[in-house]
Amino acid sequence: MAQVIAQPDIDTLFEAGAHFGRSKSRRHPTAAPYIFGSKDNNDIFDLTQTATLLTKALEAVTKIAGEGKQILFVGGKAEVANIVKGAAERVGAPLVAGRWIGGTLTNFKQIRRRIDRLNKLTGEKERHELDKYTKRERLLIDREIEELEHRFRGLVDMNERPGMIFVVDTRHEHTAVKEAIQMGIPVIGLANSDCDMKGIAYPIPANDSSARSVAFFVNTIADAYWAYKKAAPAAAPKRGKAE
């Protein structure tokens, strides 16, 4: 059963700038129920609803974390990538803070093979087992390691599909959202007024662009995940068994 979480304070959301939406002309129809009004032609979110929906998302996070499952943090926009990366690394969660690689969820078996290749090469390099190769061969291997790290470093410890994904800006990360929905993985989506809320299990209608707002939501989700992850039973490793 999901844990009972205290509803976030409206003033805190307001101070974070969570209420600022996009221009009315960019509003997606599915965002309309969460709009309080407009100012200078920009949408303003109803923070009472945002707080309620954030609470529901946090309850889902504690349930997933308590079951020992992982939450994948996704946010590749330049202005939010470092926030997502920092929070996910702080709580030991897998992350994608760059371009989403197609098939990360729908073809995870192949993705896991690439990650295993990265681990293999990195381990051999650290043990100086690459010294047997020529200088040119080592250069090519170093380039391969660099490319694999760029693509998959945040997923190294994700040995199976996550129990949930948390996405910053569902419009920008539409491919990740689509794959998660296809695989039956629930999505928590920090979504501005230009985002399609349909199919998002736990939408959080709020400002998904400003660093202050994004940092508040990302760290709030990360803190809840960490609090219940620590108490969860350790999951048995399942490397190489992805489907």
Summarize it.
Helices cover 42% and strands 14% of the residues. The protein has 243 residues and is an alpha/beta fold.
Walkthrough of the structure:
This protein is of the alpha/beta class and 243 residues long. The protein folds into two domains: 10-105 and 161-229, Glucose-6-phosphate isomerase like protein, domain 1 (Rossmann fold, 3-Layer(aba) Sandwich); 108-155, Helix Hairpins (Orthogonal Bundle), CATH 1.10.287. Helices cover 42% and strands 14% of the residues. It contains seven helices and eight strands. The chain has helices at 10-15, 47-66, 81-90, 108-126, 135-152, 174-182, 211-229; strands spanning 20-23, 35-39, 42-45, 71-74, 95-96, 164-168, 187-191, 202-205. A five-stranded parallel beta sheet has the order 5-4-6-7-8, sandwiched between helices. A hairpin with a 2-residue loop joins β2 and β3. The longest helix is centred in the N-terminal third of the chain and has 20 residues, at 47-66. The radius of gyration is 20 Å and the shape is elongated. The two termini are 27 Å apart. The model is unreliable at 235-243 (pLDDT under 50).
Give me the secondary-structure category.
alpha/beta
Strand order of the largest sheet: 5-4-6-7-8
Number of strands: 8
What is the domain tally? 2
What fraction of the residues are assigned to beta strands by DSSP?
A: 5-15%
CATH-level-4 superfamily name of the largest domain: Glucose-6-phosphate isomerase like protein, domain 1
**Secondary structure tally, helices:** 7
Task: Tell the overall outline.
Answer: elongated
Output mean pLDDT. Answer: 92
Can you name the CATH architecture of the largest domain?
A: 3-Layer(aba) Sandwich
